[in-house]
Amino acid sequence: MASVPLLRQAAPAVPVASPAADFWERLASAAALIAVSPVLCASAATLAILSGRSPLIAHRRVGWHGSDLWMLKLRTMWDRDSGPHSGWIEYIDDETGPLRKHDRDPRVPSAFARFCRRHSIDELPQLIHVIRGEMSLVGPRPLTARELRSHYGPDAEEVLEAKPGIAGLWQVSGRNRLTYAERREFDLQLVRARSLRMVLRILFRTVAEVWTGANSW
């Protein structure tokens, strides 16, 4: 897969977290993963039974500094006519999909899968990426190379200077109702004005968004 062209040569510097902050973020993520493990395991088992396929997928995204990131998610999309997939994880290198998500996506055939998506239960495996240092709790959401080329253009370089996150600014500012242009502006605002106060505000707002399932499908 070709790397994303990084066109801007003089992007503003993005603050890098200190080793101490990185350590505490990984520790907090490990504690969170332990706390949610009953929900995660029960959801994975249910989705495996419903889909007849592996409970986890790893979708290829562009990570920190343009590196490959096989982003983990619980499987909430499947084709009823597809055959079974053995193993725990299916690796998907696919950049296709609708430009805007909608609440009647035929690729989400189960009410339980829709519930997991609405309340972001399918994103819980990404805590593993934070523990491994590949993602952050708060940062721009990792996108595919095609999405970055088509919708971020020369701004992609600046966004990729920040470690991708499980939660981000656009996810608490309209989420799936936003256009790509609006998401790009929120991502740029996040990497340019990132601070501890902003991170904490996004985390608190994320908890509320996940609890209510607002603007998510």
Spatial order of the strands in the main sheet? 2-1-3
Radius of gyration: 17 Å
**What is the percentage of strand-forming residues?**
5-15%
Write down the overall mean pLDDT.
85
Q: Helix tally?
A: 7
Category from helices, strands and their pairing: alpha/beta
Question: Can you tell me the residue ranges where pLDDT is under 50 for at least 5 consecutive residues?
Answer: 1-15
H/E topology pattern = HEEEHHEHHEHH
How many domains make up the 3D coordinates?
A: 1
Give the total of beta strands: 5
Q: Report the sheet with the most strands, covering strand number, pairing sense and barrel closure.
A: 3 strands, mixed
The helix content is 40-55%
Fold and architecture overview:
This protein has 217 residues and is of the alpha/beta class. The chain has seven helices and five strands. The longest helix has 33 residues. The chain starts with 18 loop residues before the first helix and ends in a 5-residue tail after the last helix.
How does the SSE layout of this entry go?
Blueprint: H1 19-51, E1 56-62, E2 68-74, E3 89-92, H2 111-118, H3 127-131, E4 136-138, H4 145-152, H5 156-160, E5 165-167, H6 180-193, H7 196-212
Parallel strand pairs: 1-3, 4-5
Antiparallel strand pairs: 1-2
